[in-house]
Structure formats: structure tokens, C-alpha cells
Amino acid sequence: MLEVCIDSLESAINAVHGGADELEVCSSLPEGGLTPSPGLVKEILKMMDISFNKPIYKSCTEFCCKNIKRPKINIMIRCRGGSDFCYTSEEIDTMLSDIEYYKTLNIDRFVFGALKALEIDEEYCQKVINAANPIPVTFHRAFDICLNPNIAIEKIIKLGFTRLLTSGQEISADDPKAINLLQKLLCINKCRIEIMPGAGVNADNVKDFIKIGCKIVHSSCKRSKEINIGNNLSMGTATTQYIYYTDKNIVRRTKEVLCRTVNENAKDS
Description:
InterPro entries: CutC-like, CutC-like_dom_sf. Helix 3 (89-102) packs parallel to helix 4. The chain has helices at residues 9-18, 38-46, 89-102, 122-132, 149-159, 176-189, 206-211, 248-268, and strands at residues 2-6, 22-25, 72-76, 109-112, 115-116, 119-120, 137-139, 163-166, 194-197, 217-219, 222-226, 242-246. The chain has 8 helices and 12 strands. It has an 8-stranded parallel sheet. A two-stranded antiparallel sheet has the order 5-6. Helix 1 (9-18) links the parallel strand 1 (2-6) and strand 2.
């Protein structure tokens, strides 16, 4: 399966047309993904009533084919940027309120992670797991900065997370060191929690993750487009003149490689 992270309606539409199995819905992907706006989530859910030979959204110029299906909708819960993942009680209260709201909608999963001194923050994670119940929760790439991955994953499993998103504690999940860690995590824990590689995953390397035993991968399948900033005035802290969006052709190509690799593995076995 392929989970595609998106932070706009355009990207969500493209991901669905490309055949994504799941959408991780965020805002601010350049920040690593923050809690999305209710408006974005509601618009995405509106188009999930997928019918044969009808556009999935009013702006679509192509028609849905019979092989397009409803992807699962996973909601990022992260109230601010910063890669420390150490939250105050006020920030946790904010995120618990976000969970309370999104539980009223037809969503499939939450995505969350919290740390304390580079270890799993068991207290705050347990609060989130309890608040999300019965909706499952993924522990995100906060895992990748934990000091001891073996201790961290044991705590994550014990707390009740059902999936781990990780780059194998490297910048890119296809780094040889990352692949080595992913293999170890799969070998020890694949019957206890789903291991989902993410960061640098693309159509060229996705087969490597399937061959080591991963059942789902995570990718943005993105392209960039240039924007013109009037008189060079930039808002906030961003200085880039590019924005990113999910490309349906990249999604489709990645999904095709996934399916082909699975079929090849089945024949070999």
C-alpha cells in the first residue's frame, strides 16, 4: 500500500487520481506536516463518495475510472513546527481538542508523536491514544531522533500505536544504514506493529522496501512549482520561491512499481 502525504486539496485530488491507498492530511509540509485545517479535511471527505464515470471533484477535468477507490484519510496531529516534539501542557490540550473535533468526522487514523529528552513521552502519548480510541494512531518520525530505537519502539507498541513511520533514523529511508535498521525493526516487531518507511521514498527505490518485508510505504510524490513574490517581500520565515504539490503521475508510477514488486515476490515464493 501507498500512503501519500498532502497539504492541499489539489494534492489530495492528484493523489486519489494516482491510486493512493491512504492520504496523510497535513498543513505545512515544508515544516514536516502540521495539523490540517477543518476546511481542507471537509473538502477531502466530500469527494470520498467516489462513483464510476464521475469527476471526484468539481474542478476535475478527467473522469474517475473504475479502478479509483476511496483512500483512507489519516490526520496529522501536530500543533506547531520544530523538530524537538517536546510539548507543553497547553500544546497537548490544543491537540487533544483537535482530536476531539476530528473524531466527529469520518476519518480513519491519527498521526502523532511526542518526546521527552529524546525519549518517548509516555504520559502525553497515552493521553493521545486514549483520546483517539477507537481510531488507530501512527507514531510519526519523532521516532527518528530517539536515542535508542529498540527501547523507543517497545514503548510505542506498549502504548498502543499500531503503525510506525520512520526513515530508519537517517535523512533518507533508502540510506544503507536506514535499510539495516528497518530490517531489524521488521524482523523483531512486524507482527506487533506496522513499519512504514518514509522520507526519500520514490518510484525508483520503493521496491527495496517491499523486498525487505514492508507492507506500506509513505511518500509525498511531489513536484515543485515556482511562485512570484511581489517586490521580494516574504511573509513569515519562508524564503523559498517554490511550493510543492503531489503529482498524480508520480503517485501512479510509484503504485505501479509497488504492485509489480508484490506480484514478482509472490511468483518467487
